[in-house]
Amino acid sequence: MASRNFYIQLIFSVLVITLTALLLAWAIVQDWYFTSGLALILLVTQVYGLIRFINRTNRKIAYFFDAIRNEDFTLRFPERVTIKSFKELNKSLNRVNGLIQEVHLQLQIREQYYQEILKQASIGIMTFNEKGHILFSNPTLERLLNYTPLNHIKQLAQVDQELYEVIEAFKPFDRRLFQLSNEREQYQLALKSTPLVLDGQSLLLVVVQDIKAELDEKETESWVRLIRVLTHEIMNTITPIASISDSISKYYRKGGEMVDLQDLEQAQIENTLKGLEVIKDQGSDLMDFVQSYRSLLSVPEPNKSLVKGKDLFDKISILMSSRVENTNAEFTMKCNPEDLEFFIDEKQLSQVLINLCKNALQAVREQEHGKVQLIAGLDREGTKFIEVRDNGPGIPAELMDEIFVPFFTTKTEGTGIGLSLSKRVMQLHGGSLTVLSVPNQHTIFRLAF
Prior knowledge:
Layout: H1 2-29, H2 33-69, H3 84-120, E1 124-129, E2 134-137, H4 139-145, H5 156-159, H6 161-168, E3 175-181, E4 186-198, E5 201-210, H7 212-252, E6 253-254, E7 257-258, H8 266-297, E8 305-308, H9 309-325, E9 330-335, E10 341-344, H10 346-363, E11 371-378, E12 384-390, H11 418-428, E13 432-438, E14 442-448
Parallel strand pairs: 9-11
Antiparallel strand pairs: 1-2, 1-5, 3-4, 4-5, 6-7, 8-10, 11-12, 12-14, 13-14
Helix pairs in contact: 1-2, 1-3, 2-3, 7-8, 9-10, 10-11
């Protein structure tokens, strides 16, 4: 409405000025000097009035935007004016001013809400620019680092020089684990960075989380699982030895005294020999078990070199050929791109892949159309990976947390350290071994480098 009234008044003023100009021209042609002078005065007055009218409107709008820019919402334009167009314009400006003020208040409330969330968060958060100036750090971070206030990342050198070097070298999407020690306690910090752009300025958001409690809980849980498996295996070996030893000792003792050799029966002597053989076998099994444990603890550091994925797969194909021939499963390999290379210990990784492929072939041996796939490639983030896939029955959900526990196995053969050893090898390579299993659909063991 305000713009319409302004538009109508502007057109009316222009028309009046045009008519006055025509009257002035006609009076000059007719030599009507008095009329010419009067028309000229009217024309100047009307042009001046139009300019003043437009300037008043422009000044109001300029004042309005200046007030908005300075976050001054107290500016009010008078709505009781004689000129209707100004009245409507003032009402519109006041209404817009009120709406902007309401939005501004809502944004302030939301900002305070988010700031309070960041302050109360259980993880440390900070943002800093390319020059290292810290724009924000929450109280949790300052409490973790025992330093306040944080204004520049160079202050981190006073907390821990190595921590400062890590943060200074941080790139977008970097992840690091860092152990921070002070006079009170130790912290196991997980660091993660994310890039931000705010008002055209590149920032780095760093999240710092103390995961010591989680690590302690996982460590205790791992020890419980390992001890449970160890005690199970040892008891399975020791129980027959104890039982047989007790039975044999009864042959040679009666009433607390030794039996004379001439009183022994032939069957007793034969049973003694058989019992000693069983004890020997059980002892050998226990020694093999301990040797497997030693092999898990003594994995050597990888002797890395650049190995082409295609060459690695060709080697695996040769080593697995005899096992594949003894099954009805389809075994395929794919390396994309074909020139993909891995910086690995070829001997160690070959053993890992053979172990995973062997497990996959065992999983599909009862399948009518069993398939095992060995796939190498790059994911969306540029991470190199190798996957061993099969369409077997899968791994039950209740066993997913157990399969990497040393000596845990659901098979009647093997020691149960294959997956544990494979995971250890990948850790030494700076990578990871994970599993995804959907029962009766697929199981995927993924090696990420």
